[in-house]
Each structure stands twice: as structure tokens, then as C-alpha cells.
């Protein structure tokens, strides 16, 4: 079975980044190191991720990556004084069932899943493989300030990561390097030194290494471009209405409001939250609340609609969506709701894991017209935007 341990080298000092280790810098909504974790965690053949970092950064790294352990096993270990030593410590931490190691620079956060899968396939076939790109520039060999040679550009590649090897092969290469006191800056060199050819898998120019502050700006622009290309926006509308009756609590937007009557329903009859849920489900083409929470199911008798909203948002997350914004309107003659709207916004924003500025709730009347105007019921409309 093909089982890969990803060794993520994240022991940078941040000297050229204003003193902040580049693995902890933010790139978009995640830190640099999280981008790589997110990519590798999606690949079925990856059995574990081993993050090699500085001794003094271990606690910070573990805290940052703790939530990812629910998706894939992550180990954090201390690096050495050189890259070669750091990688060796990562290899020592590999699990017993591992067949291959994939060594990746945490400072390359934009590596694409499809490129990783290609180099994995080549490593399985050739025993050793690395991502790389053809040099766009003409390279000169210079001695003492004078051009000595101009190699043929078509044969020159810029090596990237991940670099992937059979673990048995790489361990043999490590022993050979240690025996001869070789110190290589590139992992392929270790394997080349024992006479094993390394296959070059075509990579992507976006898989750049972050070295200077200017690189961060370029990577941010590339990330934003990629997100624009891949993002999907969908709009949903929800509507709900419940009758007002005696002997029921009045709950709107998760807030209990003192009133002489309340809304009748199988759950807590929170008409506002029900409209929001229907809008979200509709935007994602996931049906409606009647399908997910039928009023014939005793499990939902008296249910807290805010909890149901959290469940709906989790369903959307599984489909790759998150809430962009919510705009809702409550239609009620009585009671006056203005003072309760801020609490409703907060409850709904928390359930949907969005900021307060992404939720707007309004209340209006129908000027004593119709069933809401006659205080026989309360209705709500909601319009939502979801994004992938």
C-alpha cells in the first residue's frame, strides 16, 4: 500500500521577514504553514504530516495546528542546525507503515494538489521524484566575475518541493551522507549521491518559495487570483410563517421575547431562523427545512432552532460553502422588536460563524393588514449569499 509521510520543513528564522518566522505569516485567511497542511490533508495517500520546526516554536506550532489533527495525524518535532539534519529528524518520526516520504518546504504554500498527486505517482513508479520547472532565464556560470559558461537553458530546471522518495531508499541515502560527512541543501542530492536517478515531474511556477517580503505580496496576488477563478457564489431566499397562540414562548432569532402569545410549531417555531435556514439550504440546492427536520419526527419537538441552524451551516461546509451574508426581515404587528435585533444578529452570526457585519435583520409591520397586521401570526423573509 502506498502510504506517504509528509515532512514539512518549517524551521525558518524570519530574518528577512522582519523577524517573524515565515511559516507563521498570514497569507489570505490562513498562515503560510496552514496552506500546505490544507493541501496535503486532502490527499488520501497521505497518512501523516510531520512538521519540523525550531525547538522554541514547537508549542506555538502545536497550538496552531491542533484542529487539523481531527482531519489527519500531525506530529511536530524539533529541527536541527541544518536542513539535512532537520529532515533526518522528521524521517525518524515517521510511522512504521510509511512507504514513502514527501519532503516539502513550508515556505511553498501555493503548491497545488494536482501537482502533488503527479509527483506522488512518479515516485511510486521511479522510486524518487521531485517537482521542478524549466528555467525561464538564461543561466551563466561565473568565475571571479567573468562568465565562464552558458549551459543550454532547455536542460536546466529549478527544483521545487515536494521531493518524494521511497523511505527505505532515503534512509540509505541519509546513512551514506552521514558516513561521508556530506551536507546537502537539496534532498535529491542525497539520493543522487548513492547513484539512484531522480525523476523530474513538471511543476508550476506558482509553487514559489517565500524568501523576501516582496514574495509575500506576489503570493498574495496569486492566491487572490486563484480564489477568484475557483469561487462560486449562490443566492437563496427563505420564507416562513407561524401562527400566534396562547401558552407558547415567543422566540425570534434565538432570543426569547416577553409577549402575551407565542408562535405555534413543532420546534421552538423561530420563524426568523427558519427563514434563514431555508434560504441557506435553497442556495446550496439542499432542499428545505421540512426535509431535514420534519414535523413528524419527535426528535425535533421543541428543538432549539439556533442549533438546527448550526447543523445547516455544517451541511453547507461539507459541500464547500460558507455564509457570505444574510439579510432578513421580520413582519410582525406586535411586539416592537427594535431593541431585540442586535441580540438576534449576534445569535445568528455566531451560529453561522460569520462576523456581525455579515448579518442584517430588519423588522416591519403590514400596517394592520392581513394575518400579521391582525396579530394572528408572524412571518419572515431571508435572502442569503453563500460562497465556496
Show the helix and strand layout.
Blueprint: E1 4-10, E2 26-27, E3 30-31, H1 32-41, E4 46-53, H2 58-65, E5 74-78, H3 83-92, E6 100-105, H4 113-126, E7 128-134, E8 141-143, E9 146-149, E10 157-166, H5 167-179, H6 187-193, E11 199-202, H7 213-230, E12 233-245, E13 250-252, E14 255-257, E15 262-263, H8 271-283, H9 289-292, H10 305-318, E16 322-331, H11 341-352, E17 359-364, H12 370-373, E18 377-387
Parallel strand pairs: 1-4, 1-6, 4-5, 7-11, 16-17
Antiparallel strand pairs: 2-3, 6-10, 7-10, 8-9, 12-15, 12-18, 13-14, 16-18
Helix pairs in contact: 5-6, 8-10, 10-11
Describe this structure in words.
This protein is an alpha/beta fold. The chain has 2 domains: 4-230, Spore Coat Polysaccharide Biosynthesis Protein SpsA, Chain A; 233-387, 2-C-methyl-D-erythritol 2,4-cyclodiphosphate synthase (60s Ribosomal Protein L30, Chain: A), CATH 3.30.1330. 33% of the residues lie in helices and 27% in strands. It has 12 helices and 18 strands. It has helices spanning 32-41, 58-65, 83-92, 113-126, 167-179, 187-193, 213-230, 271-283, 289-292, 305-318, 341-352, 370-373, and strands spanning 4-10, 26-27, 30-31, 46-53, 74-78, 100-105, 128-134, 141-143, 146-149, 157-166, 199-202, 233-245, 250-252, 255-257, 262-263, 322-331, 359-364, 377-387. It has a 7-stranded mixed beta sheet with strand order 5-4-1-6-10-7-11, sandwiched between helices. The chain has a 5-stranded mixed beta sheet with strand order 15-12-18-16-17. Strands 2-3 form a two-stranded antiparallel sheet. The chain is elongated, with a radius of gyration of 28 Å. The two termini are 33 Å apart. Residues 233-386 form the 2-C-methyl-D-erythritol 2,4-cyclodiphosphate synthase domain. The record marks 153, 209 as: Positions MEP for the nucleophilic attack. Residues 1-233 are annotated as: 2-C-methyl-D-erythritol 4-phosphate cytidylyltransferase. Residues 234-388 are annotated as: 2-C-methyl-D-erythritol 2,4-cyclodiphosphate synthase.
Amino acid at each position: 500500500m502506498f502510504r506517504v509521510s509528509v515532512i514539512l520543513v518549517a524551521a525558518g528564522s524570519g530574518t528577512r521577514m522582519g523577524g517573524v518566522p515565515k511559516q507563521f505569516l498570514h497569507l489570505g485567511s490562513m498562515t503560510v504553514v496552514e496552506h500546505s497542511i490544507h493541501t496535503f490533508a486532502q490527499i488520501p495517500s497521505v497518512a501523516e504530516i510531520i512538521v519540523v520546526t525550531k525547538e522554541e516554536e514547537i508549542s506555538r506550532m502545536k497550538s496552531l495546528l491542533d484542529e487539523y489533527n481531527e482531519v489527519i495525524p500531525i506530529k511536530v518535532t524539533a529541527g536541527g542546525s541544518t536542513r539535512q539534519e532537520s529532515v533526518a529528524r522528521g524521517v525518524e518520526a515517521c510511522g512504521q507503515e510509511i512507504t514513502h516520504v514527501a519532503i516539502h518546504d513550508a515556505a511553498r504554500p501555493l503548491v497545488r494538489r494536482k501537482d502533488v498527486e503527479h509527483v506522488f505517482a512518479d515516485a511510486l513508479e521511479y522510486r524518487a521524484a521531485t517537482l521542478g520547472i524549466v528555467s525561464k532565464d538564461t543561466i551563466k556560470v561565473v568565475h571571479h566575475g567573468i562568465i565562464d559558461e552558458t549551459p543550454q537553458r532547455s536542460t536546466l530546471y529549478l527544483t521545487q518541493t515536494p521531493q518524494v522518495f521511497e523511505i527505505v531508499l532515503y534512509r540509505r541515502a541519509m546513512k551514506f551522507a552521514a558516513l561521508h560527512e556530506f551536507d546537502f541543501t537539496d534532498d535529491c542530492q542525497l539520493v543522487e549521491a548513492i547513484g539512484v536517478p531522480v525523476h523530474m515531474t513538471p511543476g508550476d511556477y506558482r509553487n514559489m518559495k517565500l524568501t523576501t517580503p516582496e514574495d509575500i505580496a506576489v503570493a498574495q496576488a496569486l492566491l487572490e487570483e486563484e480564489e477568484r477563478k475557483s469561487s462560486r457564489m449562490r443566492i437563496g431566499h427563505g420564507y416562513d410563517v407561524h401562527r400566534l397562540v396562547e401558552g407558547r414562548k415567543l422566540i425570534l432569532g434565538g432570543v426569547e421575547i416577553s409577549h402575551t402569545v407565542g408562535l405555534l410549531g413543532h420546534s421552538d417555531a423561530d420563524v426568523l431562523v427558519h427563514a434563514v435556514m431555508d434560504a441557506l439550504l435553497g442556495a446550496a440546492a439542499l432542499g428545505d427545512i421540512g426535509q431535514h427536520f420534519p414535523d413528524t419526527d419527535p426528535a425535533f419537538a421543541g428543538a432549539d432552532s439556533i442549533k438546527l441552524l448550526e447543523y445547516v451551516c455544517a451541511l453547507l461546509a461539507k459541500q464547500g460553502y460558507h455564509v457570505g451574508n444574510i439579510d432578513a426581515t421580520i413582519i410582525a404587528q406586535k411586539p416592537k422588536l427594535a431593541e431585540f435585533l442586535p441580540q438576534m444578529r449576534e445569535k445568528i452570526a455566531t451560529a453561522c460563524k460569520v462576523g456581525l457585519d455579515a448579518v442584517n435583520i430588519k423588522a416591519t409591520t403590514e400596517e394592520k393588514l392581513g394575518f400579521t397586521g391582525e396579530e394572528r401570526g408572524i412571518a419572515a423573509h431571508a435572502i442569503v449569499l453563500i460562497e465556496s
